[in-house]
Each structure stands twice: as C-alpha cells, then as structure tokens.
Design goal:
The chain has 97 residues and is mainly β. 4% of the residues lie in helices and 60% in strands. It has a 6-stranded mixed barrel with strand order 1-2-7-3-6-5. The chain starts with a strand and ends with a strand.
Length: 97
C-alpha cells in the first residue's frame, strides 16, 4: 500500500507545499523553490538516479544538507536532493514501505 499526504509546512522557515511519500527513502526539493533557501549547494558522493512520475529517469548529485522541516513545533533535520518537480515544492521520503 502506497500512502501520500500533501500539506503546507515550514522548510527552512519558508511555507512549503510538502508531499509525504511513505514509500520513498530520499527527500527531494524542486530546483525552482530551492533558490529561495539562500544556501550553498553540496554534492552527493555519486549521482542519484530517480524515477519520476512520468516514468522518466533523472540523475543528479546536488543536495542541500541540514535543511529544517517543522512539524507541530518539532524540527527535523534533512538533506534535500534537487530535482525538477511539477506542482510540489518538497517531497519528504518517510520510508515506511
């Protein structure tokens, strides 16, 4: 069973449309939204290959490390990998699958 939840939360103190994907093991951020972070982009040790909704695969190694996701006044640290995204600004991989 694949479960999704979409809501608006704070990511790095910015109101953000977040997709919680209970089957994902990585967390992603749209390239356009990430420009608002004002942070330096880091690099993964090797590029990550991702299958996206239109069944295409993309590869990227750009990452924002130490981002903060706020849920009910609890702050969670996460690394966000940059990918081109449509309507959602942030995809949080919760990894319950």
């Amino acid at each position: 069973m694949i479960v999704f939840l979409i809501c608006t939360l704070l990511v790095n103190s910015l109101p953000t449309l977040v997709l919680f994907d209970m089957g994902a093991i990585q967390s992603f951020v749209s390239q356009s939204f990430s420009r608002e972070f004002g942070l330096l982009v880091g690099e993964l040790e090797c590029p990550l290959r991702v299958s996206i909704a239109n069944k295409h695969e993309i590869s990227d190694s750009s990452v924002y490390r130490g981002c903060v996701l706020e849920i009910f006044r609890v702050s969670l640290s996460l690394d966000l990998i940059l990918i081109p995204m449509g309507g959602c600004m942030c995809d949080y991989g919760y990894g319950l699958a």
